[in-house]
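Regression check, adenosine-5'-triphosphate case 1166:
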Amino acid sequence: MTGSPLLVAADLHKSYGPTPALEGASLAVWAGEVVAIMGPSGSGKSTLLHCLAGIVVPDSGQVRYDGRELSGMPDAARSALRRTRFGFVFQFGQLVPELTCVENVALPLRLERVPRREAERRAAQWLDRLEVGDVAGKRPGEVSGGQGQRVAVARALVTTPQVVFADEPTGALDSLNGERVMRLLTAAARETGAAVVLVTHEPRVAGYSDREVVVRDGRTRDLERTW
Amino acid sequence: MVSEVLLGARFAVAGGRDGWTRTLFTAVGVGVGVALLLLAASVPGALQSREQRGQARAGFHAGDVLPAGPGTVLIASVVTTFRDQEVYGNLVRAEGPDAPVPPGLVALPRAGEAVVSPALRDLLDSPEGPLFAPRLGGARVTGVIGDEGLLGPGELAFYLGSDTLGSGRAVRLDRFGEPQPAHEPFGPMLTLLIVIIFVVLLLPITVFIGAAVRFGGERRDRRLAALRLIGADRRMTRRIATGETAVAALLGLAAGGLLFLAGRALVPLVTLWDISLYAGDVRPWPPLVVAIALAVPALAVVVNLAALRGVAVEPLGVTRRGVPPRRRIWWRLLLPATGLALLAPMAGGGGVAAAPAEYQAAAGTVLVLVGAVALLPWLIDLLVRRLGAGPVGWQLAVRRLQLDSATSARLVGGIAVAVAGTIGLQMLFAAVENRSRTAGDDVTRAQAIVRTFGRTDLPESLARLRGTPGVAGAVGTYEIAAALPRGGPDRLQLLVGDCAELAAFADLGRCADGDTFLVRSAESGSVTASQLRPGGRVALGDDGRPWTVPTGARRVPARAQGPVAPRDAILATPGALDPGTLPERETATFVRFVPGDPDALERVRSTVLAADPLAQVAALTPVRESNRFASIRRGLYLGIVVTLLLIASSMLVGVLEQLRERRRLLAMLVALGTPRRSLGLSVLWQTVLPVLVGLVLAVGFGLGLGVVLLRIAVVRVTISWAAVGWSAGLGAAAVLLTTALSLPALWRLTRPDGLRTE
Amino acid sequence: MMCIVLSMSLGQTFLGLLESGPRHGYDLKRTYDDRFGNARPLHYGQVYATLSRLLKDGLVELDGVEPGEGPERKRYAITSAGVTDVGRWLGTPEKPEPYLQNTLYTKIVLAVLTGRPAADLLDVQRAEHLRLMRELTRRKAEGDLAEQLICDHALFHLEADLRWLELTSARLDDLAARVRS
Ligand SMILES: Nc1ncnc2c1ncn2[C@@H]1O[C@H](COP(=O)(O)OP(=O)(O)OP(=O)(O)O)[C@@H](O)[C@H]1O
Ligand SMILES: [Mg+2]
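Current build output:
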């Protein structure tokens, strides 16, 4: 944790109508580290993650990535950021059911205008790395939850992003498959130097992190820092 | 840029069975619509081809009378009808070896020979053949008229050879074909009607295409959200969606082309509006084809993008759908208001005479109907928002509609346009029919009139007619127009016949050959008749040959129960006026049939034509409902039914799709103990509620449109509740059909084991 | 903490190892340390005390003594009584250990009673637990299968503690109300 952080959120506030989701959340993420965000259900973890990733614009406070203010950016710029610098692994519903696994993984590259062949070659490599090379030609509906999740990890990493955002990536998996996904995700992230922001309520999954941040009632407590 | 469109295209064709079925549904839906559009685009061309062939075979000659020569032909029309179908009959006589041959014939038939159209040949070969055969005068059929000589495959036509045809009753030609285009086949009023019918039928088809494009739309939107998450920006998602829709629309275009070609092959089998067409005639006008080919994908893309605007496709859109934008009312009201503003000045009559007025009327109608489509979602929203909780089925349906009423609004929009248009047109038809019905013939006196021209021997002809089976009676006289030498323009008729014949027209009292009678009907205010007295002079026929009414002529009253309504006339026995001395000897014979013999008329036609091919038989009908109106109305109903079936089918697809998407939920509801009846009811409500709104709106707009059209046609405004009932009933039937057809799928999907099949 | 096999069952563990064949005491210690000892090797004294107890109970017998000095020259073999004993031991479930009165609970109640910030206490504990879990996760990633199983066992226990900590912090207010009343 030396040098300046890659991603900084300061004093974020966000409400959905009358419901406050974030009430002064702050967080810094350094390059290459794995940060676990934990806390009770409804405390605002997902909202914080979405703000960090530029998916949701906070009502107040700022999110800076690499020195740039996210909330001031137009949608296209934030989309571009998601495409090139960020990767996402969510609990489910992220793979496109119409495409095969390898095509799904190649998708972010193709959005970046990488030719199809090249994109799919790289996608296949990533599938191998995540030990799901054998399902490359299948559609998401034909693979198990654990395999699908590893395909999603491959897709998150295929653009060699700076930050991978993972919201309950193991939420729908048993512990063996959950651990496998986490082991592969963190190993690959460390190899490529990507930071991982991991929302989870499973302590064992959080065990894969370098650092933990607890969210309660929309506010963050960075335990390592306070104590 | 292009790569995203291609990616979208890939989505359209990839994606396993599910993806394929969706694309297929869209393609078929669009295809059906496109085929219908192409058909409509072919109508002008088809009519034009007919007209061209009609002109090419016309025996028309303008200018100086041609001298007979080796290259001339004499031709005369044989005017006859079989059942209700007019027959194109000709009597021809070649005057030399180089005589011109009409199109479709190899050579001119000689006397005793006939060349007939395939349809007539089939008729002659059929059991009904003997009813027609005598009209060919026993001639041998030596050939068949080729397609280029016929208006359509169903046309009854013949060329009968003659060696007695004289130039007095015929036209002499040195070539066939009419140089100038024939006049417009429909009057302005009819043209207006036809334009509006097209609008009424094509608008729902357009709406239908719009709906077909959105088959599987929800699923696609969710996929786009997933793409947003991995960094596709809004423009990219739009391009991807565009690519996907465009592929489906293009497939639809191709499907439409194929359907059209297949349908075209069936065209010769159909005779609609008394018109049959060759498959080759049904050729869409190229600019229209180009327009369709461009407009359909464009429409598809626009509809899809508009639908995308309604859902906020955000990266998290997977779970959190955007609230649909509040519907604004002003522009929705603007459309029908503009339409009415266009139509209003035309009300009061006279407005449809000029060509631009047709376009104005069409534009006004389109705007009013499109306005109905635009108002519908707003009204449905308004209604659904207010609806509260109720039984489970009701609640499921209402909540579903509150979340997304646009899908059903799109489909119901089609129904609304179809129903509103039908109501408006039906009102117009009902009114116009009433008006034309008053001009019917009085069939209590006679049911047919036979007219002959030329050297006919009347007594012989009368004997033949009276001997024809099915004829109850016949009264015939020579008929010649008479006028006072310096009188007004009125003419009266001079009838020459035996006392027995003349007695049918007036109470003669005594009568012997050589007598003359003057008949004056009570109602007649004719000056000519009042100035005519015995010993007076009249001018006969076209050349005004003078004739003196014999001084012994008596005035007699017209007979009330005669073969025709009482009228002013001079009745003369052959002794008073020798018909042989008349320049034109025209006879008119009134024929009564034995009631209930449908073939009697055909036998009379045959009898008459066998003796004189140039004679004419006119059947009298009680209601002279404009034939065209009747067939147009039938066409309209047919079109509406087809349109409603189309829309019902696309509603069905929509419902099935929703059911499939929510199969887990449904299975869960059943597992929880929700009665399937409730689920069935929810499907029913979900379709019924929007359709109810749609029908109310359609009835309102239809009546409004009808009133305006009636005002334009200057007809007294009466509301035809039967038309309203029929049209709305057809719309309602479409909904019930949809629901009924979707129930088996619902039953299948709501088996509790559906929970596992995810 | 890391000593998974409790001393009371050291005898049975030795018996189990001897089932595959007679061994020297030194061998036994080495094998045990490899398999189960983790960071804490056995003392020779412990080994020979246990073996002599087993000998006395007739569960092992001397298989032979090699020439030379020292107890390490003896070879032990399992008796049939010993085999029976191992079977019985393996078949007997361990008594679940409900830590009804553990230190942590005492600390929290005391903190609440004395008006100290119990939430902070919980958070500190939580951080400590997670730190340990992280370390174990790391070791697990580097170790072999045996190492992984052992670490997982500890991790699941720690996770259970942590969940309890979370639950408790969510119920601190209730607790405070109860305790103070
Ligand atoms: N789109 C939304 N509309 C309305 N309220 C929302 C929305 N998203 C989140 N909230 C509210 O914001 C608060 C925080 O939600 P968030 O999803 O961030 O919680 P979380 O910590 O991720 O919970 P969990 O562990 O259950 O996933 C909750 O009270 C939730 O109800
Ligand atoms: Mg969450």
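Comparison notes: Residues A 45-46, 167 surround magnesium ion (ligand 2) (CB under 6 Å). The first strand of chain B starts at residue 73 and ends at 82. No diff flagged against the previous build.
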